[in-house]
Amino acid sequence: IQMTQSPSTLSASVGDRVTITCRASQSISDWLAWFQQKPGKAPKLLIYKASTLESGVPSRFSGSGSGTEFTLTISSLQPDDFATYYCQQYNSYWTFGQGTKVEIK
Amino acid sequence: QVQLMQSGAEVQKPGASVKVSCEASGYIFTDHYIHWVRQAPGQRPEWLGWVKPNTGDTNYAQIFQGRVTMTRDTSISTAYMALSSLRSDDTAMFYCARGNRDTFDIWGQGTMVTVSS
């Protein structure tokens, strides 16, 4: 199953509402997770089962979608949120999107 | 706290093998699968396979079949990933990750493997 994210890069300012899209090449129901990765660090789980927030993750992060189209939304971008975000499907094995880098505008 | 601690960076020659360890702490090692993920510089993460600590069962991604071996030692709560016939395009960060809720909730800090002659 191929995962495609858009955009590849996103320029935004602190306080902006940010949305990242992830599309699956076939239906994956809601078997989708979102990860945040900062340079030199391991990915960090933010959301699983498309919309369930991992414990300890700020509520400004939210996920939605099912089937083949999913979104990750950050309601008010904070300085700590500048990072690369990956979606991951786990309907059939595990594959990741190519990533979306959120950079400072 | 729950954590996975990996072994240090490796430099290997083409054709050689590498073995990376991943020591678990803060939870019952045999309760969760350990997955291994490769991430080449600037690339997306790529799943290599899993080992089930309580039985030693394994499942490898097709593209790594024949080159990867995953094992575990329950007496020291440690999982291992060995990759053979190394090529330059195996140069990457390798991560172990704990399986939970069918995804990966805790990751090791990563082990950089450099393949160079």
Provide a descriptive summary of the structure in words.
The complex is a heterodimer of chains A (105) and B (117). Chain A has strands spanning 3-6, 9-12, 18-24, 32-37, 44-48, 52-53, 61-66, 69-74, 84-89, 95-96, 100-104. Chain A has 105 residues and is mainly β. In chain A, strands 2, 4, 5, 6, 9, 10 and 11 form a seven-stranded mixed sheet that branches. Chain A is globular, with a radius of gyration of 13 Å. Chain B contains no helices and eleven strands. In chain B, strands 2, 4, 5, 6, 9, 10 and 11 form a seven-stranded mixed sheet that branches. In chain B, strand 7 (68-73) and strand 8 (78-83) form a beta hairpin. In chain B, 37% of the residues are buried. The interface between A and B is medium-sized, with 20 and 17 residues.
Keywords:
heterodimer; A: 105 residues; mainly beta; 7-stranded mixed β-sheet; 4-stranded antiparallel β-sheet; 11 strands; 50% strand; B: 117 residues; globular
Summarize the structure.
Chain A is mainly beta. Chain A has strands spanning 3-6, 9-12, 18-24, 32-37, 44-48, 52-53, 61-66, 69-74, 84-89, 95-96, 100-104.
Average pLDDT figure of chain B: 97
Straight-line distance between termini of chain A = 33 Å
Overall geometry of chain B: globular
Structural class of chain B: mainly beta
Strand content of chain A: over 45%
Report the average pLDDT across residues of chain A. Answer: 97
Radius of gyration computed on alpha carbons of chain B:
13 Å
Q: Please bin the fraction of helical residues of chain B.
A: under 10%
Rg of chain A: 13 Å
